[in-house]
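User: Good morning. I'm curious how 2-phosphoglycolic acid would be positioned relative to this chain. Could you predict the structure with it bound?
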Amino acid sequence: MGKKIIVGNWKLNKNLEEVADWVDGIKIKLKKVDFDKNLDVVICPAYPYLLGMVDLLSDTNIKVGSQDISQFEEGTYTGEVSGKMLSEIVSYVLIGHSERRKYFKEDLSIIKRKVEKALVNHLIPIVCISDKVWGDGLPAAKYNEKFFLHQIKNVIKGLKPAEVKKIIFAYEPPSAIAKQKHEIGVGHAADVNKVIKVVELIKSIVPESKVIYGGSVKAENIMSYLSNNIIDGVLPGSASLHAQDFGDMIINATEGLSGLH
Ligand code: PGA
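Assistant: Good morning! Here's the predicted structure, ligand included:
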């Protein structure tokens, strides 16, 4: 079984004091936990905290990622943060989360440009693949195989195999994403057998890429997603906000995975 990955997404949450508390909390929680052998752990705070988090976490094995990246390289694009800037600070970037697609009207061409900017700047893109259609000209459906294939093919079109291999795809059904702020497990995590089927479908197109799952993942259910050879990791949102819960996820995954080896 390859190394799995846990990517926490804080979304639009936390102030400076809460960031510092989280870092203190996670360090205490994981003091004696040697997760690095079986797990990559990434946390994605809002832009203003990236640099500070990298610094604060430099004595841990937790890596920092960005929640977004500009589709532009540089210039007259007020408010944007480029791949070049990010590459000096972080190594991972989330792209095309369903919330960005919904609230910021990101379409497949924007997602494609963002993936290209990430790769050019040696960032690892974590590309979210949704089973909902956001105005990309295809019929809406709860789960639409054609749309899946279309999204992935759009992302990898024109890329070299070595670049495709670097991309992590995240299957994120919006119906499973917790809607309420700071509440864990209020969403309905997708059935693991369904997730495995979808991940297999994605891997039929990108067999060398990692494919992870996101939607109401928490300490209690994390191992149901990680204990197979198909799903390469998880992308928790609400459960990553609290150091205790995020730490419990890492501990459960570390213990669960070491038992499988
Ligand atoms: P959730 O969010 O874990 O709170 O459901 C997942 C996500 O949106 O990435």
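The beta strands are 4-9, 39-44, 62-66, 92-95, 124-129, 168-171, 210-213, 233-234. Residues 4-260 form a domain with the TIM Barrel fold (CATH 3.20.20.70).
Let me know if you'd like a different ligand tried.
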